[in-house]
Amino acid sequence: MSRDNVVKIFKKSLWVFHLNTGSCNGCDIEILNVFAPFQDAERFGVKLVGSPRHADAILLSGPITREALPRALRAFQAVPEPKIVLAIGSCACGGGIWYDSYNIIGGVQRFYEILREKLGIEPPPTFYVPGCPPKPEAILYAIGVARGLLAKKQVAEIHIESLEEAMNRLREVITDEYHRVIEEYVLGKPLVRKVVLKEV
Ligand code: SF4
After folding, report:
1. Is residue 89 lining ligand 1, measured as CB closer than 6 Å?
2. Which tens digit of pLDDT belongs to each residue from 55-111?
3. 127 and 181 share a domain?
4. pLDDT, tens only, 8-67
5. Residues 101 and 162 in one domain
6. CB-CB neighbours of 144 under 10 Å
7. Is residue 143 located within the same domain as residue 160?
8. pLDDT digits (tens, 9 = 90+) for 139-178
9. Ligand 1: which of 30, 86, 90, 99 to mutate, most ligand atoms within 8 Å of CB?
10. What spatial distance separates the first Cα and last Cα of the chain, rounded to whole Å?
11. How many domains is the chain built from?
12. At 94, which CATH number?
């Protein structure tokens, strides 16, 4: 199933199961942080559940250790289809600093190779959140992408070659109040090559 189709399916809510496959607990603290009242991921329809059988998604933290592999396989198979995986942290994405340790299988891609080769299972759409550990905002961002919440907010990149063209563009989108600041700080520079404007 494609990533776009899965995003449509989970548009209303997403129940997630947190699976630690050998993390140092740095990523786990940030995952819990996302569900604490300050970040409050539940406001986006995301709920942490205690059983993989109730989940739509796996929040995977840590590299896959040899010890955790059988447990990870069982948890993975217990999550009903369609499902998605959010690989949280550099270890889950690619093994991190432990990638060549004697007791590490690797990151989620290595796990998927085992799924394909040994069990004939095609891996689900996966969202990668690198970082050691990633910030809670980055995890929330990934959840937003998985839920299709970010499609409405597009960032328009406007490539501009001349200063005159840049100023004309800026005048279209900013108020008079900011003209003086722009004249003072932007015009002082020899050339504006790229201006990024947020759609409002
Ligand atoms: S990415 Fe960093 S914080 Fe997360 S499990 Fe690996 S070492 Fe720990």
Report:
1. yes
2. 999 999 999 999 999 999 999 989 998 889 999 999 999 888 888 889 999 889 989
3. no
4. 677 778 899 999 998 999 999 999 999 999 988 888 888 899 999 999 999 999 999 999
5. no
6. 16
7. no
8. 998 888 888 777 555 555 556 556 677 677 666 666 655 5
9. 90
10. 33
11. 2
12. 3.40.50.12280
pTM over 0.70: yes
Place of tokens 């809670």: 136
Residues in the chain: 200
Distances (CA, A) of 117 to 45, 94, 112, 157: 35, 19, 9, 42
Shared domain for 126 and 190, answered yes or no, is no
**How far apart are the C-alpha atoms of 189 and 63, rounded to whole Å?**
47
Domain that holds residue 77: 3-147
Q: Are residues 106 and 25 in the same domain?
A: yes
Using CA atoms, how far apart are residues 63 and 87, in angstroms rounded to an integer?
10
Q: How far is the CA of 158 from the centre of ligand 1 (A)?
A: 37
| pLDDT value of position 12 | 79
| 31 in the same domain as 112 | yes
Residue of 18, 32, 132 to mutate, ligand 1, most atoms within 8 A of C-beta = 132
